[in-house]
Amino acid sequence: MKIEEIVVNKTDYTELLLIGDENETMINKYLDKSHLYVLYDNNKLISLCAVMGLDNKTAEITNLATYPEFQNKGYASILLKFVFEKYKKNFRTIILGTGENEITLNFYKKFGFVKFSVIKNFFVDNYPRPIFENGRQLIDKIYLKKDL
User: Fold this and answer.
1) What is the mean pLDDT of residues 36-54?
2) In the prediction, which pLDDT does 136 show?
């Protein structure tokens, strides 16, 4: 297994990025400003994480995605731990925004993330079509934070 940073041709990873964020327009807003880390297992692309510095104290995970056939096998957890180690040298806090999906929220909570903000109607106002996860439409964006 290896993790590497992608510095050029980040849009080559759009297929996987779209698993973490279904709107390519939204992805294009943050991708150039984000560091993109990809995880390979047996030379096969499995998962990725995009991270952007917001200021000199806070970084934001802008995308975390794993191909469906590899989900729930620990790959995203490995990437998160890698990001925590890498970013704790220069940042105090890491944040991320996600939908109101209990499975996703519980995943992040087990890593110490806590809810600190909500943007009402974010997914309704910013995405051209409704997004559903686990049979439930995403409406609000939930922001979580973790001290590094």
Assistant:
1) 97
2) 85
Distance CA 2, CA 25 (A): 29
Could you list the residue range(s) of the whole structural domain that residue 10 is in? 2-147
Measured CA to CA, the distance from residue 49 to residue 65 in angstroms comes to: 7
Task: Give me the number of domains the chain comprises.
Answer: 1
3-state secondary structure 40-59: EECCEEEEEEEEEECCCCEE
φ, ψ (nearest 5 deg) of residue 107: -60, -50
CATH of residue 42: 3.40.630.30
Q: For residue 39, which amino acid is it?
A: L
Q: What is the C-alpha separation between 61 and 43, in angstroms, rounded?
A: 24
Predicted confidence (pLDDT) per residue in 92-121, tens digit? 999 999 998 888 999 999 999 999 999 899
Amino acid in position 106: N
| Cα angle: 85, vertex 37, 59; to 5 degrees | 55
In the chain, what's the furthest Cα-to-Cα distance?
Answer: 41
| pLDDT value for 8 | 95
Is the pTM higher than 0.90? The answer reads yes
Identify the three-state secondary structure at position 8.
coil
